Structures are given as structure tokens and as C-alpha cells.
Automatic annotation (TrEMBL):
Protein name: Telomerase reverse transcriptase
Any one GO cellular component localisation term in the record: chromosome, telomeric region
Main location: nucleus
Organism field: Manduca sexta (Tobacco hawkmoth)
Keyword rRNA-binding: no
Catalytic activity: DNA(n) + a 2'-deoxyribonucleoside 5'-triphosphate = DNA(n+1) + diphosphate
Keywords, ordered alphabetically: Chromosome, Magnesium, Metal-binding, Nucleotidyltransferase, Nucleus, RNA-directed DNA polymerase, Telomere, Transferase
Length: 708
């Protein structure tokens, strides 16, 4: 389609097995007559017939240049020290510089026709190389800027010329730029920090060496075992008929690939990439039933941490605020460390326990069938593919397998009940909270002896990550900190204040946003990312129980800064100046009004009965526009909206500006619920707090298109 949203990074991300240009484009296409290449390029005979002689000549030059340049599979483009085998990131600036030089040698200058077009194409290639994981583009935005009033474009009808340009740009990126990248580099995401969508470039030979060592390590530890029927040599394959060999190759293609996700300190996590096959409704229902069965066996309640923590805080106050001890830890390789034989025994034991408590005969029969199916599923061999070699997964659960999270939860819940029996038992006159989410643990107690006993019990697991274990009391072998971060929240262990974890907003926001095909509707995309659906509003931070009023306002400001930074980042990447006013209206509706209402509603519902929360709605609105103003000033493509933002700020600035009659509380329909009171609007303590909000919180980084 001419107006489709395209993801260019899909052509060069995680392409480990692309070793030559013929893997991407058949070499005979460049040797055959022009019509064959034209058909491959345009995929539309009508566009081919519309080509002018001048354009045919340009495409002929492109073909000849490409054939000449690709003789060595583009391996002479980049300068690399082959003697260095240690895995290192490659600077994207160097990748872009050499890749752009290569494209200049392949694409004839006549293709552009104008210096403006040359700059547009240069900008597009730079954006593609610096793009995020599976970032989608609206290519039409760049085509609309193209100057078609110059040779060779002026000899074509404008609609046809746009279609031809669209096809050529897409083909160049897919069949020239992408092979240039993935033959020389391995491009992937890493778990180095919270920037989950950031792409890293590694030299192909360095990554292959690193990958081979990790595969060898998995073989050595007997985690995987080579599966000979699918890993035959050429001589062995010759013993089979051509039909059988094709059948084996087709079966191999369905086997999922084994990927390695890099973590800090050159550690890594093996993940199996299952293909997203279309499932029938019956298959979806069967998976859903099995997951529900595993949830029943696990027997865990879905209590949220904010409610558990709130109850614990009330007990802490009741017991006159005793010293409380926190232990935070996690398990390394949680899935891979699971003993599958023991898991099957646990599954059967807990199933029998459910059978005893179940009275309904039909439900008993259903549970028994689900148990048999799950045992059969666990006994099935799991095959994974590394290059052309097929392995059988022999130890632990595979990360990426649809049942692994639920089975892991069942396994560790059962072991927790054994190892931490005394820590799980509720105590009437003692503060005690045990939480495990997947492989992350948090234990809170008012007994130092109990905390140390928990650490001893933890040693029953052989895969405890002591480097990530943190306590708030002295221990000879474990890190000390008064602040504990767990599941996106930071807990001050001295005064029990809770705030957002820095990882939520620190760094470039563009790497935390998934630019999916949903951006075909920019306004809807913006709405869903900056409003409550994209910004978490919970009673864990928006309450006046264990957070002070000053802290609450800081959380409000940080939340608005998070929304504003997302807004400016998305606007800078996918929007244009013509849409500025509409985008600001989206911000006003989703953040200034709806997000504010959600925060106020949460605060009013979760405040102590004897606490009065006196506010003016303009205080929230002012902070929402102030946050946007701070972000817009630091985001190059958003500076034009600052005057419009200042107008909105002035309207809601009742705390510092000229005071006028207005509503301090309004209904969802816009009706006045309570008139403003000057003494409330201009509260001295509020003014002191708000004066500290004239810079973004520490760690915030606004989008910079030049950032590499």
C-alpha cells in the first residue's frame, strides 16, 4: 500500500544468520534484464510502464553500481579491527557515516534532482539507522516534502511520481541499506538499563564469537543437547530423498530460534523466539483454560502491593512506629533453574489437594484432564534452533514459552511455602510482609532476627542474586541502603514514604515508548501514551496516609513531567507544526483535565477520614502546563509551542499570578462544584513548594534528535 506505516528496523534487527548479500537479494536479479529488477522493485506493472527513459537510465546506473559494490558483500565499507574479539558497542555515528558513503556510491545523483531532496533522503537514512526497536514510520511525511518540480520527477504525473518514489525509497532501505547493516553488524536490544527499545550495534564477528561461547556454555552445562535428526551433515542428507530433505527443512523452519539478550557485565539471558502463528479460537481457549488451571493450583490471591503496604503501614502506626527491616532480592536464571521433574511432582501434588477440596464431580473430572494435559505438555521435547543446528532443551523452562511464567509461579510458590513457612504465617502483634513477583522478593519485618532468618532461608535457593540483594540493616556480605526499589516504586525505609522509581522516567523517553503501527492515527497514539492509560496513577503514591502533602505535590509534578516528556517526545518524532494546536488540545483533554481528575479522585478516596485535603483545581492545571513548558523549552522541535503553553499557564496561575474569581472544584461535565477562595489559592506553604518546580526532576532527559 502507498500509505502504509512501515517498520524499517525489522529488516536489520536480530538478523544473525545473514552472511552474504544473496541471503537478502538473489544475485541473478542484478544480472538479468532491467524489466526483471523493475518488477521486483515496483511490484506493479502499471508503474513500470509509466517510467520515462531518463528514469530507466537512473535505475540502470543504480543496478550497475549495486552489482559492483556488492561483489564483496559490502564487507569493505566499514573499518573494523578484526583482532579485537571482545564484545563492544559500535557508535551509530560511525555506522551512519560509512553507510551513507556507500549509498552515495550506489545511488546516482540524478535520482535526487535537487539539493533539498538530497537532504530529505539523508535525514531519512539517519533516522532509520538511529531508530528504535520496531519503530514504525509514516513515509508519506517525507515524500510530501520532496520537490517533484525538477528533473527527473517533473516529467511524471505527480501521483505516479509519489508512488515511484515511495517504492524506490522502501526498496533501497530494505534491499541495500539493511543488508549493508546486517552483514557487518548484529543489531539488537539489551537489558543494560530501562531503555528497552534502544538498539545496539555490534560487529558481526564479535557477536558471533560471544554467541558461540554462550551456546558452548549451555551445551557444557547440559541445558541443551544437539538433536541429530535435524542436524545432519551433507553426507548424511544425501542418504535421504529430495522430498524428505525438503520436508526436514520445512520442519526446521518451524523450530523457534534461540536468541541471547545481553545484560550488564557481559552476562546474558537465553530467550526462545516463538513465531506468532495465527491461532484458532479453540487453541486460544485451550491455552486460557490451562493457564487458569495453573492459577488455581498456585492458589495465590491477586492482592496489589499498594493495599498490602497500606495495611502494614496502619499496623506500624498502631505499634508506635518500631524499627522495620527490609530485604529485597531476586533469583538469577529463575526459569532455567527449575527442576522439571520436581515441577511435575509439585503439579500432581497440588492437583490432588485441589481434588480433595472440590465437591463438584464435573469440576473434578475437568481438573484431572487439565492435569494430564499439562503433564503431557511438560514431557514433550522442546526444540530450539541456533543457526542451522537444532538442539533439544533439557534443563529448566524455556524463556519465551507460553506456559513458562505460570509454571514458574507454581514452582516457586510451592518452594516458598516450604522454605519460608514461618515468614508466610501472619502475626497479630508483628509487622510482616512477604511478596514475590516472578523472581523478585520483598520481605518486611520488625524483627532483626526474623530478617536474618529470612536471608538464611533464602540460601535454600542456589540461584539467589546476592549482587542485587539489598537490606536496610548492617550485614557483612549484603549491600545496605535506606531506599529500596521494588516493582517501579522506591520505599524510604525510615519514614515509609513511597515514590516512583527513577527508572520510570530517567533517560531518553523515546526508548521507553513503543512506536507501533498504531501511530497511523497520531492523535489517538498521543492520547493513549500521555493519559492515564500510559501513566500509572495509584494510591501507592497519591495518598495522604504515608506520604506528606509536600511529597504528594512533588508526585503530582513528577507525574505531569512524565506525561509532558512523553508528549514532547512523540510530537517531535511523528507530528508536524501544522498539527501543533490539535496536539495541544489533546494534551489539555488527556492530561490537564482527565489525568488531573484521576489524581484528585485517587487522593480523595485514599485519604484518612480525619484529614482535609484543601486544593484548587487550578493548582493541578498550572503544574500540568508548567511541566509541558519545561519539556517544550528543552525539546528542539517543540519550542514553537511555548508561547501557546504560556497563555494556558497564565489562565490557571492563581497561586502566583493575578487572582480572579474561578472554580476551585468542577464536575466532569464542567459545572462549578465549589468557588475558589483566595486564601486557599495563594496559600503561603503552597507557594514555597511550587517555587521548587521551576526545573525538571533529576534524571529527566528531553528528546534530542541529535542524541546517539
Amino acid at each position: 500500500m502507498f500509505n502504509e506505516i512501515i517498520c524499517f528496523s525489522q529488516y536489520f534487527v536480530n538478523k544473525q544468520n545473514v552472511r552474504s548479500y544473496s541471503c537478502v537479494l538473489k544475485s541473478n536479479l542484478l544480472k538479468k534484464e532491467d524489466a526483471v529488477l523493475h518488477k521486483h522493485l515496483f511490484e506493479d506493472d502499471s508503474l513500470v510502464t509509466d517510467l520515462t527513459p531518463e528514469f530507466n537510465n537512473i535505475l540502470l546506473k543504480l543496478k550497475n553500481n549495486l552489482r559492483l559494490k556488492s561483489k564483496n558483500d559490502f564487507r569493505d565499507i566499514f573499518t573494523c579491527d578484526k583482532l579485537k574479539s571482545e564484545l563492544q558497542f559500535v557508535n551509530k555515528k560511525d555506522v551512519f557515516t560509512d553507510a551513507w558513503k556507500c549509498l552515495n556510491e550506489i545511488i546516482p545523483k540524478e535520482f535526487y534532482g535537487h539539493n533539498k531532496n538530497f537532504k530529505i533522503f539523508h535525514q531519512l537514512i539517519e533516522i532509520v539507522i538511529y531508530s528504535m526497536k520496531y519503530q514504525h514510520f509514516n513515509l508519506i511525511r517525507y515524500i510530501e516534502k520532496w520537490n517533484f518540480c525538477t528533473y527527473p520527477w517533473k516529467n511524471l504525473p505527480q501521483i505516479t511520481s509519489k508512488q515511484i518514489l515511495y517504492k524506490i525509497i522502501k526498496w533501497i532501505i530494505q534491499y541495500i541499506l539493511s543488508p549493508v547493516i546486517c552483514i557487518n553488524f548484529y543489531v539488537t536490544t539489551c537489558k543494560m538499563d530501562a531503555d528497552e527499545n534502544k538498539l545496539y550495534f555490534f560487529w558481526k564477528h564479535q557477536w558471533q564469537s560471544f554467541y558461540d561461547k554462550k551456546i558452548a556454555s549451555l551445551i557444557l552445562t547440559k541445558t541443551i543437547l544437539k538433536y541429530d535428526p535435524f542436524s545432519m551433515t551433507k553426507k548424511m542428507k544425501n542418504n535421504y530423498s529430495l522430498c524428505r530433505r525438503k520436508e526436514i527443512n520445512m520442519l526446521k523452519k518451524d523450530i523457534p530460534k534461540l536468541s541471547i539478550i545481553l545484560k550488564p557485565n557481559n552476562d546474558c539471558r537465553p530467550i526462545v523466539q516463538y513465531k506468532n502463528k495465527l491461532q484458532t479460537n479453540a487453541e486460544k481457549y485451550r491455552i486460557k483454560e490451562r493457564l487458569f488451571f495453573l492459577k488455581i493450583l498456585t492458589g495465590k490471591t491477586n492482592k496489589k502491593i499498594e493495599y498490602e503496604f497500606g495495611t502494614l503501614y496502619a499496623k506500624w502506626i498502631e505499634l508506635n512506629k518500631p524499627k522495620v527491616y527490609f530485604v529485597k532480592t531476586d533469583l538469577s536464571n529463575a526459569f532455567g533453574s527449575i527442576d522439571t521433574n520436581r515441577l511435575m511432582k509439585i503439579l500432581q501434588e497440588r492437583h490432588l489437594s485441589c481434588q480433595k477440596s472440590e465437591k463438584n464431580a464435573y469440576a473434578k473430572k475437568k481438573l484431572a484432564q487439565q492435569c494430564r494435559d499439562m503433564i503431557a505438555e511438560l514431557r514433550k521435547p522442546i526444540f530450539i534452533r541456533s543457526g542451522s543446528t537444532v538442539f533439544e532443551w533439557k534443563k529448566g523452562l524455556v524463556q519465551g514459552y507460553k506456559y513458562s511464567p505460570a509454571l514458574s509461579d507454581l514452582y516457586y510458590t510451592h518452594l516458598d511455602e516450604i522454605y519460608f513457612k514461618e515468614h508466610l504465617e501472619p502475626a497479630r502483634h508483628q509487622i510482616k510482609l512477604f511478596i514475590r513477583v516472578v523472581d523478585d522478593y520483598l520481605y518486611i519485618t520488625d524483627s532483626l532476627e526474623d530478617a536474618n532468618n529470612f536471608l538464611k532461608a533464602l540460601s535454600n535457593y542456589k540461584n539467589v542474586n546476592y549482587e542485587k540483594t539489598i537490606v536496610n540493616f548492617d550485614h557483612p556480605n549484603i549491600k545496605y541502603s535506606e531506599e529500596i526499589t521494588f516493582l517501579g516504586y522506591t520505599y524510604n525505609t525510615m519514614n515509609w514514604h513511597v515514590s516512583r522509581a527513577n527508572s520510570v522516567f530517567v533517560g531518553q523517553m523515546c526508548y521507553k515508548i513503543a512506536f507501533t503501527s498504531a501511530l497511523s492515527d497520531p492523535y489517538k497514539f498521543l492520547e493513549n501514551r500521555i493519559g492515564q492509560s500510559g501513566i500509572q496513577v495509584t494510591c501507592h503514591i497519591f495518598n495522604l496516609v504515608y506520604n506528606t502533602e509536600e511529597m504528594m505535590w512533588r508526585h503530582v509534578f513528577t507525574t505531569f513531567c512524565l506525561s509532558a516528556n512523553k508528549f514532547c517526545t512523540i510530537y517531535a518524532i511523528i507530528c508536524n507544526k501544522e498539527s501543533m494546536r490539535n496536539c495541544l488540545q489533546v494534551y489539555k483533554n488527556r492530561v490537564t483535565v482527565k489525568l488531573t481528575n484521576s489524581i484528585v479522585d485517587t487522593l480523595m478516596r485514599f485519604k484518612p477520614a480525619d484529614t482535609k485535603f484543601i486544593y484548587c483545581i487550578n493548582h493541578f492545571r498550572y503544574l500540568s502546563w508548567l511541566a509541558l513548558s519545561l519539556c517544550a523549552k528543552k525539546t528542539l522541535k517543540c519550542t514553537d509551542m511555548v508561547p501557546h503553553i504560556n497563555v494556558e499557564m497564565a489562565k490557571s496561575n492563581c497561586i502566583f499570578g493575578k487572582w480572579n474569581d474561578h472554580a476551585s472544584q468542577i464536575s466532569k461535565s464542567g459545572e462549578v462544584l465549589k468557588p475558589a477562595v483566595k486564601e486557599v489559592c495563594r496559600r503561603t506553604d503552597f507557594r514555597v513548594i511550587f517555587k521548587t518546580f521551576y526545573c525538571l526532576p533529576n534524571g529527566f532527559e528531553c528528546f534530542d534528535h541529535r542524541i546517539k
